Amino acid sequence: MNASPSPPATASTASPVFRAVLYMAIASISMVVMHVLVRHLSLAMHPFQVAFFRNVFGFLFLLPILWRQGVAQLRPERPGLLLVRGISDAVAMLCFFTALGLTPLATVTALSFTAPLFATALAIPILKEVVGIRRALSLVVGFAGAVVVVRPGGETLITAGAALTLVSAFFWGLALVFIKLLSRTESTVSITFYAAVVLMPITLVAALPFWSWPSLDQLGWLVALGATGTLSQLCLSQSLRLADTSVVLPVDFTRLIWSALLGFVLFAEIPDLATFLGGTIIFSSVVYITYRERLRGRPPLPLKVP
């Protein structure tokens, strides 16, 4: 007698690794959609103002979740470091949102992959981590990939958008190091909450000189921007909770593919071979560094939504 067929796997019955990969895929798509919305909104609004509303609406979507996890977790142990982390995040976001209005989506995405490389390099002086020859060579290769993407030469060594993306990656890398430090004493809820609390006033001050009230149509897009940013953050966190970073990190590379596709369809951008080649080199070095961290038994640097 034949055995009855097994029921198809659902989100609740699938293996943790499968669910982690699925969450990372959703996070990656949501990130790119968020970047598309920033580009669209920046056509009529200053990117600093877009950044402010992204933080406001993102915080409103996140607030019920933070509240449900408990207010008791919001007591900060290291308020000074939480403030510094928030400032680093704010600088990174303002630079990144400005770059999205100046540079093709695929190029911005490829260069944003350098954030973990900056974090690894910054962990040497800040966290006193020892980087072996293999990780050191991976850093060199990764930054060489960034050179491939920007292709310095001619009259302009590097475009303003590419430069801003690299500056944002540096400050996001710095924020990742701070998050690793904060995770020793602060809860995830506390780190997330105070990041938003610091980001909102800083981006508001930056936006005030360029202020114009959004139209009803723009307000709808801004709400969608906050929703996609929060969705990305939640899916990324859930993915890393279910599986090791080295397992789900390769899925994040799909951001480059989605960026190229949506950039072509929506903005008639045609990424060249150098963007894909450089992005692949950068991302491969990040994956290898994460793999080496796992072999050495060290907790990997956290990922975050740009």
Give your account of this protein's structure.
With 306 residues, this protein is mostly helical. The chain has one domain (16-295). Helices cover 72% and strands 0% of the residues. The relative contact order is 0.21.
Helix-strand layout with pairing:
Blueprint: H1 16-41, H2 47-69, H3 79-100, H4 105-112, H5 115-126, H6 133-150, H7 160-182, H8 188-207, H9 216-242, H10 245-248, H11 254-267, H12 273-295
Task: Give a brief rundown of this model.
With 306 residues, the protein is an all-alpha fold. The protein has helices at 16-41, 47-69, 79-100, 105-112, 115-126, 133-150, 160-182, 188-207, 216-242, 245-248, 254-267, 273-295. The model has no long low-confidence stretch (mean pLDDT 86).
Q: Give the ordered list of helices and strands.
A: HHHHHHHHHHHH
Structural class: mainly alpha
Helix content: over 70%
The largest sheet, given as strand count, sense and whether it forms a barrel, is: none
State the distance separating the first and last CA atoms: 55 Å
Total strands: the figure is 0
Overall 3D form: globular
Tally of individual helices: 12
Low-confidence stretches: none
Q: How many separate domains? A: 1
Please state the CA-atom Rg, rounded to the nearest Å. Answer: 20 Å
Mean pLDDT: 86
* β-strand amount: under 5%
